[in-house]
Structures are given as C-alpha cells and as structure tokens.
Design goal:
By secondary structure, this protein is of the alpha/beta class. The chain contains 12 helices and 6 strands. Strands 3-2-1-4-6-5 form a 6-stranded mixed beta sheet.
C-alpha cells in the first residue's frame, strides 16, 4: 500500500492534495459512474441499499453483512483514492464491483412487483438497461478487434522492405508489432535499464535531433506518446481542484522530444506522413482505456531530390 500510494502514484496525481482537490475527486467519481454502468443504474443501487436496510431491521447481523460492500467501497475511496488522488478506470474498478449487489437487489425488487403491468414495465426497462450495457461492452470488443495498430501493421507489412531502418518511439503498450525483417531501433530518453525490452529491437538513447545522421526510412510515432510533448490547447473546462501530473509536466518541459516532434509534425524534417492509422468506430468508442484506439503515425523519409515537396502537417489529438 505504501508503494501504491507513493512512488506508483505520486508522479501521476491529477488532483491537488487539499480539501478542494478531494472534493473535486469525489465529484469526478460520481460523474464517472457511466463509465461502468448506464447512468440510471445509480437509482437501482440506491434503491437496493434502502431495501437492504429496511428488510434487515430485526436482523442486525444480516444488516452488517449487507453493509460490507458499501463499507469496502467507502474504505477504498478514503484510504486509496483520496491518497493516490487519481480516478483512472482501474482506480474506480473496486467501487464499480462493490456496488453491484445493491443494483441486483434493486432489480430483484422490480422483477417481484405484484401488479402485472408494473412488473412488465420493469422487465422492459431492465431489458433496455441490459441491452445498453451489452452494446457498450461490444464496443470495447470492437475497439480491440479494430484497433489502429492492426492497420499500421498491415501497412508496414506491405511497404517496409527487408533491411529498412525503422525507428519507433514510446512504450511497448502503445506500439504496433514491428516488422521483424527490418532494422528496428527504439529511441527514448529513458535509461536503457528502465525499459521493457522488445524482441528484435535495438534500444537507443541517441539525441532526437540527430535524425539526419541516422536517416531511418520509417518513423513509428504513437499519438499517445507524442501528445504529451507537444503544446496543448487551452482547456475551457473548470480546473478547480485539478493539477497537472508531474510526469506530464516533465514531458512538456522536455525540450529534446518536444523540439523534434514540433519539427516532424510541422513538416520541417525530410519526412512525409505516409500512413495515419486512426480508430474508426462502428460501435461506441471506449473511454479511459489508454492504449486502445490510439492513432499511430508512420512517417517515411523523403528522397533527397523531392525533399522540398512537403504535404500539410498531420493533426495530433
């Protein structure tokens, strides 16, 4: 717990460590409820909790047992979320599981209504909620099957020739599978011993600015990696209680990657955008899954005589 609340979270805290930040965290936890269930399901959870409380008036031990999921969710919120100061999907997963028994109690009560008309209406409403949840789950599966990395892999299989120099950037989780018939290098400022190795890939810490000395034919740039180093547009939403995580501050202050990507996306380097693998949803796009559905940019080096014929700069999300 000390590790999870300390080194594993300190650099990623998104809320201020005061009462304002914790109030904002609680507000965001409520606002993020639809990540896990259709929003109206919250009413079923409240109804289930009330039903449990009323039905166990004469059974104190059973009432305590019925409060265990609520107390577990409250404990995790107070002693983890409020200390780690994060609301990523995985940081709210325990609460989303602990609330399920109360949703079940609410559903059981509706399905047990005595009046046939009310019971039929409840069945239809719950069927609609189940269909909505199933549709959103299917969207997650569709995003996995239709992830842009597959498109990037197909493009590389068709265009990368044996022995071509390919330079990739970013962590393993955001990269497509790289063609093993090429000469593969991953460039980063992170120390070599801190990286998770990729098979067949040479890890390098050479300066980004020396791209003209290395002259790789292709550059593989995950948008999720690149966007942290590029200037962000002003956020018009309310910022009370929020803070920029330290890891993002470090990325934005890193002049080496920022200068390189600014020139690359600004068409100031002898590279053209050869492929932009972008997620095209045919079911609801998933929210909050960092490595899923992310755009992959593939740049190709421009032959020397045509180096002046640059196309418009690609759009970074």
């Amino acid at each position: 717990m000390a590790f999870l609340r300390g080194p594993a979270s300190q650099d990623y805290m998104a809320y201020t460590a005061d009462i304002t930040g914790r109030v904002r965290l609680m507000a965001d936890m409520i606002a993020h409820f639809p990540r896990f269930y259709p929003a109206v399901t919250a009413l079923l959870a409240v109804a289930g909790l009330v039903l449990m409380w009323r039905s166990t008036r004469a059974q104190p031990a059973l009432r305590v047992a019925g409060l265990v999921p609520l107390l577990a969710a409250l404990s995790f919120t107070l002693f983890f979320n409020m200390l780690a100061l994060r609301t990523d999907n995985r940081f709210l997963l325990p609460q989303s599981l602990f609330i399920a028994p109360y949703i079940g109690l609410g559903c059981a009560w509706l399905l047990g209504l005595r009046r046939p008309a009310l019971r039929l209406a409840a069945q239809a409403g719950l069927a609609g909620l189940a269909a909505t949840a199933l549709w959103r789950c299917a969207g997650l599966d569709a995003a996995m099957l239709n992830d842009p990395r597959y498109d990037a892999e197909r493009w590389m299989a068709a265009h990368v020739q044996p022995g071509d120099a390919v330079e990739a950037y970013g962590r393993n989780a955001f990269l497509p599978r790289l063609p093993q018939n090429a000469h593969l290098t991953r460039l980063d400022t992170i120390a070599l011993k801190r990286r998770n190795p990729l098979p067949g890939v040479t890890e390098s810490i050479a300066p980004f600015a020396q791209i003209d000395e290395r002259k790789p034919r292709f550059l593989i740039v995950p948008n999720f990696w690149a966007r942290d180093y590029l200037p962000h547009s002003a956020d018009t939403g309310s910022q009370w209680g929020l803070k920029t995580p330290r890891v993002l501050q470090d990325s934005q202050n890193s002049t080496q990657e920022g200068a390189f990507l600014g020139e690359l996306f600004g068409n100031k380097l002898p590279y053209r955008l050869a492929q932009e693998a972008r997620y095209a949803p045919f079911l609801p796009a998933p929210q909050g899954y960092e490595s899923l559905g992310q755009t992959i940019f593939i740049f190709e080096r421009i032959p020397e005589p045509a180096a002046q014929a640059q196309q418009p700069a690609p759009q970074v999300d």
